[in-house]
């Protein structure tokens, strides 16, 4: 059995009931085979892969909180500090009922390679809780965030571990958590990113993941001789990533005709009306049925279906494993040219392979959605300097980072004789820096 297969098997045996973590490790390790085989003896002696697939540490804790009726609830919180070889742990917090240790580990593992790809000094971590923010009052959200941070504050700090948002965690939640950290620890420091602008947040962080996705998509298309202007896009999700992906795609001259939430999806033949979508999702925190009611050109459908629409570009921006083999077949049959992942691991392994076999340009999430964490790292830099940059400065740096990532994954794929295989290219480019840093730092 090869070294990669041995490690993969041990991950499955030692981490039972964590299918998403197995999937993420399998995708990365299998595509790293050419690099591992070229250095097998050395890596094996150093147990490099075993160290990479085992988080440096993980915390699991109780979160008691009181609802508006005086009822006490208990949720479970997590923070996984996966790999700190190239910088302080960095990665978001997810509040969603589906959260468990395996989900946080898959996200933390992906984050290690993503953060490396940004070229900035950030290690990989992730956290969250099985708390459902839907339908909660502002006071309940505050109570939960304060209780969560009361425990989390023991393990994080501006130079050790810097969380941010993810699904269910936006500016409101980051604000409540920052306030509680400051109150308990007594320090005003850049311990979280995605902060409000009045207390150390960075301009363009809100837009960064969606904008970054489009900067990378445009560059990937350009490398392959294709223009983004005039193309039609299907977008899934209607949260932070989806909204700003639609905004930037529209600005680039493409037309986004779909979006979705956890209960249904919209097809809008005239292109998504962004002002209306922001009003429904960012201000009212309402369902997409509200969008359809206010927009005559839009159709609302229950369930899933955005991938059945004929488009040139697919941008999955909701959650993991939301694009399956049947969806990939439908997209290919409809002539899709490119798929770029705004969400983390939205495409199943089988669907990814189908796209690659059918010559669809496929940009994996760890490259395509790295703009969010990259801009978080820029927020950390501004906090260290105690200065704030303009929107234009941050956005220009974000564009530069996404263009560099596109070329790094393209170049690594070519170097290993797999031109156009951006999954392999992104994994190898992300791995090389972390592996080198780990080797230099001895057995830790
Ligand atoms: N916010 C950020 O900066 C970054 C987010 N991501 C990833 O992007 C994806 C979306 O995150 P955000 O937009 O920040 O979250 P969000 O909470 O703002 O929005 C999430 C969206 O996905 C939908 N969704 C969530 N769970 C779902 C489910 N089980 N089935 C169907 N739809 C579901 C929600 O309805 C919502 O439209 C996630 O995979 C996240 O990990 C990746 C990089 C950075
Ligand atoms: O901005 C950050 O630190 C985290 C972003 C994130 O959670 C992600 O890249 O998946």
From TrEMBL:
It comes from Ohessyouella blattaphilus. This is Glutamate dehydrogenase. PROSITE patterns: GLFV_DEHYDROGENASE. The lineage of its organism: Bacteria, Bacillati, Bacillota, Clostridia, Lachnospirales. It comes from the Bacteria. Homohexamer. Residues 202-442 form the Glutamate/phenylalanine/leucine/valine/L-tryptophan dehydrogenase C-terminal domain. Keywords: Oxidoreductase. InterPro entries: Aminoacid_DH-like_N_sf (IPR046346), Glu/Leu/Phe/Val/Trp_DH (IPR006095), Glu/Leu/Phe/Val/Trp_DH_C (IPR006096), Glu/Leu/Phe/Val/Trp_DH_dimer (IPR006097), Glu/Leu/Phe/Val_DH_AS (IPR033524), Glu_DH (IPR014362), Glu_Leu_Phe_Val_DH (IPR050724), NAD(P)-bd_dom_sf (IPR036291). CDD domains: NAD_bind_2_Glu_DH.
């Amino acid at each position: 059995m090869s070294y990669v297969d041995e490690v993969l098997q041990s991950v499955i045996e030692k981490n039972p009931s964590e299918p998403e973590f197995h999937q993420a490790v399998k995708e990365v390790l299998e595509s790293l085979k050419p690099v591992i085989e070229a250095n097998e003896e050395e890596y094996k002696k150093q147990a490099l892969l075993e160290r990479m697939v085992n988080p440096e540490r993980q915390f699991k804790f109780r979160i008691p909180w009181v609802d508006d009726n005086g009822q006490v609830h208990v949720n479970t919180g997590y923070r996984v500090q996966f790999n700190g070889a190239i910088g302080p742990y960095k990665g978001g917090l997810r509040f969603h009922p589906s959260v468990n240790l395996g989900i946080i580990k898959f996200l933390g593992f992906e984050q290690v390679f993503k953060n490396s790809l940004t070229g900035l000094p950030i290690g990989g971590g992730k956290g969250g809780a099985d708390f459902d923010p839907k339908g909660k009052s502002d006071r309940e959200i505050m109570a939960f965030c304060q209780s969560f941070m009361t425990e989390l504050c023991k393990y994080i700090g501006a130079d050790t571990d810097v969380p941010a948002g993810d699904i269910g965690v936006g500016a409101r939640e980051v604000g409540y958590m920052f306030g509680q950290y400051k109150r308990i620890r007594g320090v005003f420091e850049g311990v979280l990113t995605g902060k409000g602008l009045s207390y150390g947040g960075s301009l363009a962080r809100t837009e960064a993941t969606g904008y970054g996705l489009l900067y990378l998509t445009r560059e990937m298309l350009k490398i392959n001789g294709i223009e983004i202007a005039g193309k039609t896009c299907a977008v899934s999700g209607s949260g932070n990533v989806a909204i700003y992906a639609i905004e930037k795609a529209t600005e680039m001259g493409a037309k986004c005709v779909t979006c979705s939430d956890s209960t249904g999806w919209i097809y809008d033949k005239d292109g998504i009306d962004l002002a209306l979508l922001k009003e429904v999702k960012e201000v009212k925190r309402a369902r997409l049925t509200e969008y359809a009611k206010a927009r005559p050109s839009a159709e609302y459908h229950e369930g899933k279906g955005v991938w059945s629409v004929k488009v040139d570009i697919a941008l999955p921006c909701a959650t993991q494993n939301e694009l399956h083999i049947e969806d990939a077949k439908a997209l290919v049959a409809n002539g899709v040219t490119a798929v770029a992942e705004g969400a983390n691991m939205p495409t199943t392994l089988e669907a990814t392979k189908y796209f690659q076999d059918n010559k669809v340009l496929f940009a994996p999430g760890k490259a395509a959605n790295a703009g969010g964490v990259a801009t978080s790292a820029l927020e950390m830099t501004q906090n260290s300097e105690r200065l704030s940059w303009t929107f234009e400065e941050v956005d220009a740096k974000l564009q530069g980072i996404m263009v560099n990532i596109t070329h790094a994954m393209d170049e690594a794929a070519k170097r290993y004789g797999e031109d156009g295989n951006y999954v392999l290219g992104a994994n190898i480019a992300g791995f090389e820096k972390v592996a080198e840093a780990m080797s230099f730092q001895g057995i830790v």
